[in-house]
Amino acid sequence: MPPQYAVLICDDDADVRAAMRRTLHAYAVHEAADPREAMAALKQHRFAAVVSDFSLNADSDGLEFLQMVKLLYPELVRFLVTGTRDLDVALRAVNEGSVDRFFLKPWDDLKLQSALELLLHTRQDDSADSMY
Question: How many domains does the chain have?
Fold first, then answer.
């Protein structure tokens, strides 16, 4: 049986993408190394969620990328995963409402999986309710 949800991972580190792919093995996982590649993937495929690193070695950081995702694809679940312990990053993520969940690296596999599953089912239920 194919995975029910497609998830896009955006991280400039191939090893982190591989670890995230293992964590999210129950989903159809697609990978992008930077926000530009991720935006191209979002235009070509339907995703249920986006998981992005904060520090991307790109023109923009992961939070700016997820803000753009929120504007263009507000129905998508958005997770920010970061190794930075900078409180300002967490405050921006929460106050600007661009992420649904914030995880520090190294993440806890079960907590990330559970949070994603819960949000995906909640969004699906909300979508079904709005049809009636």
Answer: 1
Domain CATH for 37: 3.40.50.2300
pLDDT, tens only, 53-111: 998 877 888 999 999 999 999 999 999 999 888 888 888 887 888 899 999 999 999 99
More confident residue, 124 or 132: 124
In a domain, 115, yes or no: yes
Decide if 1 is inside a domain. no
The residue range of the domain holding 53 is 6-126
Residue 76 lies in a domain: yes
* DSSP code per residue over 57-101: SSSS-HHHHHHHHHHH-TTSEEEEEES---HHHHHHHHHTT--SE
Is the Cα torsion angle 101, 105, 73, 123 positive or negative in sign?
negative
- Give the span between the Cα atoms of 7 and 117, in whole angstroms: 11
